[in-house]
Amino acid sequence: MRKTGTMIIGHGSRFAYNSAVLEMQAELLRGKGIENVYVGYNETSLPRVDDTLGFMAEDGVDEVVAIPFFIASGLHITRDIPAKLGVPPGSRGGKVTVGGREMTVHYETPLGKDPLLTDILDEKIRELGRGGRIGIIVIGHGSKLPHNTDTVSFHAEGLRARGHRDVRVGYNEMDSPSVEETVRGMLEDGVEGIIALPLFISSGAHLVNDVPPKLGLAAHARTGEIEFEGRTVTVDYAGPVGNDPRLADLMAAKAAPYYG
Fold it and tell me: CB of 84 within 8 A of CB of 50?
């Protein structure tokens, strides 16, 4: 009987947040009956994807379900991770030989446009309970490829469909509009408050250090005020989405068909 294992793949970070989120989701996935669950990282954190593939080979795994725990596709998904898995760039998997063992890699897709992500963002807005004229900014990482902007725009539109009137997008880098440009536009349009929703898996250098100043907040801050043309505008900065336990259900749905 062929042995199947699942590898949850994280971005990796010099902060501990990303690995903590992945380990939490891996444990939830095991609790849903998915056997032989491993984690691996694209960069910075350990173990790396190729190391984890080696561990799976040593453990006798024949079928590898590789699930990128990322919001959207990009160069990491299409180029970097396939190279570490030993499959062609842009492919959905293939046969690889690791430590003398032949394995079949099934390379799944990131979380992408699943409506659950929109639900999570919607819940964050409602938990804050802000009244008045509120502007909402969905913050994406940004990418040289179009997948990130497509995904962020999809979830922004989903929030509009759920009744939130002023929903805009902004990117930390590479894409436009930038976070700063979107915040400036909201202030000029007279919003009374801003809710910032990072569509990121976990905290890290971008969310801790880069994004808060772009929102007019101090580093590490979750709330604050902006003075603009005689008005005081409250800014609420929500946490990332990756620690929501329901995301394990999405991964379980991706993995289960390969277990026969």
Answer: yes
106 is known as an active-site residue? no
CATH annotation of 115-237: 3.40.50.1400
Which among 106, 141, 147, 164 is annotated as catalytic? 141
DSSP, residue by residue, 123-143? HHHHHHT--SSEEEEEEE---
Per-residue pLDDT reduced to its tens digit, 26-52: 999 999 999 999 999 999 999 999 999
- Kindly report the number of other CB atoms within 10 A of residue 61's CB atom: 23
CATH number of 4-111+243-259: 3.40.50.1400
Question: Which of 3, 62, 14, 65 has its CA nearest to residue 39?
Answer: 65
Asked if residue 201 lies in contact with residue 18, where contact means CB atoms within 8 angstroms, the answer is: yes
